[in-house]
Design brief:
Largest sheet: 10 strands, mixed
Strand content: 15-25%
Number of domains: 2
Strand order of the largest sheet: 3-4-2-1-5-6-7-10-9-8
CATH superfamily of the largest domain: Glycogen Phosphorylase B
Helix content: 40-55%
Number of strands: 16
CATH topology of the largest domain: Rossmann fold
Distance between the termini: 33 Å
Radius of gyration: 23 Å
Shape: globular
């Protein structure tokens, strides 16, 4: 069996005797390496202006972690700069927030070259290489230029907007344009895939008769939709167990019989947190009978605090929460509980199970696994209601949710009332259909479907078949 090499921007090496770090990618890596040998390569998270030229190698539970440090200038230009001030906003449809500098693009390309140099030292000819997310789009070109002919796959975890927006990326041919050096590119939704397909065609690529293969400058790239899943069965069991914990007992007691909405998001403008709070504000304003009967718990770990837009957003959210609590709150009831810290997987699973409804209402999101985790965590006999943005990737799969446009404040408030008033039979019917979907298309299904197609990429019969589609 070929060795699997997974490459991502950030790699957290688990400490002995402790659970693996939380996060969708960590869960995916665990699933990918379950029955195959592998290496996980990426940035250590450490900044060192005199970094060791050789990556650190650590073995944990059958996985080889290979991590490298970054110099402060590299981190600033590659990560804070081009990745998160150009690619992130534009790929989330926020061209107005993009700030480009040539030095940031130079740093982005330089770090991808640095990763390729270090990865080249450990790469074996028959390795399958699976690269993750927008930080590392040029990595395939860098590896090809160093002579590597391995099957190279790429997965974009965030949205892919229409070509009109993609072409606003400054010098896009040097960043997004080189994605075609991968053999297989995966997207969360058909819409994301189709947007990139149109971008390829406008850029001069020729589409094969199968509609999913493209030829550009002699290279053949396949694209496909591979919605990310979760460990559905494990998460459901963990949520049930968590209800007996001291943490959940204290939370339940603090609610004093009130219903609870839950929102869990990083502090990011793409998540629609301000719009969600405004919707809850309108709900309390127009539905006075629900005052002192419902609590909105918003768990929002801060991220990218060094980027100015995130500091501005933090202040805006704090002010809005304070305003709502000041106008509606009482001595024994705080309408919004706003928490800037993260919780462990088990605690969150229990909170999801306790909540009458989850507010997963991003302005734009790749998949949003919180939506799937909420569904998995529910008591099947008395499930809560998922309120889901139509702009989240999960909306393509979870059609049993109450769908909302997060820009419509009145519609958001109406969805909250609908969730609280929904009869149990309807809640069960909606939940049953969604749970069946995420149980069938879990994280293992995602891994196997992507890697199965990637493994075909360099097999001569398959290559001949693909190339015949262009003749």
């Amino acid at each position: 069996m070929s060795r699997l090499v997974i490459v991502s921007n950030r790699v957290t090496v688990p400490e002995p005797g402790k659970p693996p770090p939380p996060g969708g990618l960590a869960v995916a890596v665990k699933a990918a390496f379950k029955d195959r040998p592998g290496v996980w390569f990426g940035w250590s998270g450490k900044i060192d202006d005199n970094p060791n030229t050789e990556p650190a190698v650590v073995e944990r539970d059958g996985i080889t972690y290979v991590v490298t440090d970054l110099a402060s200038a590299d981190h600033q230009e590659y990560y804070n700069g081009f990745a998160n001030r150009v690619l992130w906003p534009i790929l989330h449809y926020r061209v107005d927030l993009a700030e480009f500098s040539r030095s940031d693009l130079s740093g982005y390309l330089r770090v991808n070259g640095l990763f390729a140099d270090k990865l080249s030292k450990i790469l074996q000819p028959d390795d399958l290489v699976w690269v993750h997310d927008y930080h590392l789009i040029p990595l395939a070109r860098e590896l090809r230029s160093r002579g590597h002919q391995n099957p190279l796959g790429f997965f974009l975890h965030i949205p892919c907007p229409p070509p009109d927006l993609l072409f606003t990326i400054p010098r896009q041919e040097q960043s997004l344009g080189v994605m075609s050096h991968y053999d297989l590119i995966g997207f969360q939704t058909d819409n994301d895939r189709d947007n990139y397909a149109r971008y390829l065609q406008i850029s001069g690529a020729h589409m094969a008769r199968d509609g999913s293969s493209y030829q550009h400058d002699g290279r053949v790239t396949r694209i496909g939709t591979f919605p990310v899943g979760i460990e559905t069965a494990d998460y459901a069991a963990e949520a049930e167990t968590a209800t007996k914990s001291e943490f959940l007992r204290e939370l339940r007691d603090s609610l004093s019989g009130r219903q609870m909405f839950i929102g869990v998001d990083r502090l990011d403008y793409s998540k629609g947190i301000v719009h969600r709070i405004e919707g809850f504000d309108h709900f309390l304003e127009t539905e006075p009978t629900w005052r002192n009967r419902v609590v909105f718990l918003q768990v929002t770990p801060k991220s990218r605090a060094e980027i100015p837009e995130y500091g501005d957003m933090s202040r805006a959210v704090n002010e809005l929460v304070g305003d709502v609590n000041g106008r509606f709150g009482e001595a024994a009831w705080t309408p919004i509980r706003y928490i800037n810290r993260s919780y462990g997987r088990s605690d969150l699973a229990g909170v999801f199970r306790e909540a009458a409804a989850a507010l997963v209402t991003p302005l734009r999101d790749g998949m949003n696994l919180v939506a799937k985790e909420y569904v998995a965590a529910q008591d099947k006999e008395d499930p809560g209601v998922l309120i889901l943005s139509q702009f989240a990737g999960a909306a393509a799969e979870l059609d049993g949710a109450v769908m909302v446009n997060p820009h419509e404040t009145e519609g958001m408030a109406a969805a909250m009332k609908t969730a609280l008033m929904m009869p149990r039979d309807e809640r069960k019917s909606r939940h049953t259909a969604m749970f069946a979907r995420i149980e069938k298309h879990d994280i293992a299904h995602w891994v196997e479907s992507f890697l199965g197609r990637l493994a075909e990429s360099k097999k001569p019969p398959f290559m001949a078949q693909i190339r015949s589609l262009f003749s």
